[in-house]
Amino acid sequence: MVISILQITSFILMSQASELAYAICKVFLSTLGAACYNREANASGRRINQTMRLLHQVSSEWNRLNRNIRLFFLANLLYQIGTGMFSVLYNLYVQTLGYPDTMNGTLVSVQSFATALIFIPIGLLGDRTSHKLLLMTGALFTGLSFMGRSLASGESALIVLSAAAGLFAAFFQVIAVPFLAGNSDKKQRLKLFSYHFSLVLAAQVIGSSGGGYLADVLQSAGWSKIQSLQAVLFTGGAASVLAFVPLLLVRQKPAVQKDASAASAASAGPALSHPLPSSAREDWSAIAKFTLAQLIVGLGSGLVVPYLNLYFTNRFAVSLTAVGILISLGQIMTIVSMLIGPSLASRVGPVKAVVLFQMMSLPFLLLTGFTNLFAVACFSFLFRQALMNAANPIQSSITVDRVSDARRGIANSMTQTAFMLGWATMGPVQSHLLTAYGTYWGYALTFSMTGILYISASAIYYFMFNERKQKSASPQAANQNAPA
Question: What pTM does this model have?
Fold first, then answer.
């Protein structure tokens, strides 16, 4: 009897204990779930707040821009969309016409040489005439040459129109930065340059991805490959022509004021124009160093960058849409890396930041050249693209800091000329290697040669400009070396 009572009592106690334990576990789990939910909600709320703050900041910055800069950004958006379509699809169009790969190399060389030859004359002309007029000329005739190239099929016509496109494309490349500088104050310029680089890349993303997708859609609708490519390329040319319209609305008053102030400074005498004889020597020395570094980078870039779409189609046989999307993703990653670049420059210094970005891109460059796996090629291509191009705004900032106002235009022209000469020189070399060694070893060799040239350029850049940075004895240099 007693044992039975004890058994019943223990059973009741165990039931109550299990119910108590279940209740405790239930409360604990509900509390933990609520805490996790609140943490995720708080994190989500913080992300939303950060996004809203970023959008508000961008909107505020946009509203602070003057009318001329807004119109220029609109024109540049249209212009770069057309350029993006051509950068992805034109050499595929030439290949579809039945020409060998050497023809693409010839066209790239002709266009690059034409651009390089006109850079310095356009830079000098920009100091003596209206920036608005030069930009309008560049937009109109670049677009018309694109439209002509989309319809031409004969060898002579392809070469002549490539030269014309190269000549008129230089107008936008050379005059854009002086136009922005002339329509803004000193505090705005670094942000404006960042916006400018980002807008160029974003517009090219739209053009390259949209162009590849439209070409595939037209082909699926029954158009031939040549007809679809011609239609898309003609559309790109029309977009570049439309850039002429916003530029018509640009007011020349800020540029006139700038020219007037420059003229008054020049008329004040040679003592004010050239306060120190050593300043000119230092400027030309810095310009020569920048030009040499850009020439070497251009030689390496000219072996690879103009032919990346052919690399993916030849080695992996992917569709035009896939190539367009991939190149667009590379541009998006470049925009992100450009936003990270200033923070790295503030920590390690602008020169070291440039070298670090370029050196970090090398493993991905070599991996792209040697892999036979499409997924690996995509991954390495995206990171190479982002890391190598992230240094561009920092390099522009270094150039602005280390060259005086009087010679920044010619510095911009000479560095771009050197880069384009590198592209023009390497076109036939790339075509020969690809023809002689095939689509695997040909690309492997070109990517390896590009890596060697990039290492050389980074080493030269580091040693030359670290040495230049230490020379801060003159007050002129101290005043010009603002933080990047």
Answer: 0.67
